[in-house]
Specification:
Radius of gyration: 21 Å
Strand order of the largest sheet: 1-2
Helix content: 25-40%
Distance between the termini: 50 Å
Order of helices and strands: EEEHHEH
Structural class: alpha+beta
Largest sheet: 2 strands, antiparallel
Length: about 100
């Protein structure tokens, strides 16, 4: 009979011993947009065709474009990294620096 599989902290890469406390996480980022930019007077079909052309001619791969809309990760973090993650995600918006 074997013990639990070894775990590695997703933030710092440190191995987490079987007798150590660890924290599971699941993070999903989904792109949304409430309102499209102002229309240039063209039809919505024209705007959609222009957007598709822009995407086809762009530098990004299909995977990069997909990750801009939906990005998902899960894993475990150690106790020290849990504190950092919670502080980072709990910071008030006005404390955030420029993007």
């Amino acid at each position: 009979m074997s013990g639990p599989r070894p775990k590695t902290c997703a933030a710092c890469g440190r191995g987490i011993a079987a007798n150590e406390v660890y924290y599971r996480f699941s993070l999903v980022l989904q792109g949304e947009q409430d309102v499209l930019g102002p229309s240039g007077g063209g039809s919505s079909e024209d705007e959609l065709a222009a957007l598709v052309k822009q995407l086809e001619e762009g530098q990004e791969s299909a995977q990069e474009l997909e990750e801009q809309v939906h990005w998902e990760r899960s894993g475990v973090v150690c106790s020290a990294c849990r504190s950092v993650v919670v502080r980072t995600l709990s910071a008030p918006p006005e404390a955030a620096g420029p993007h």
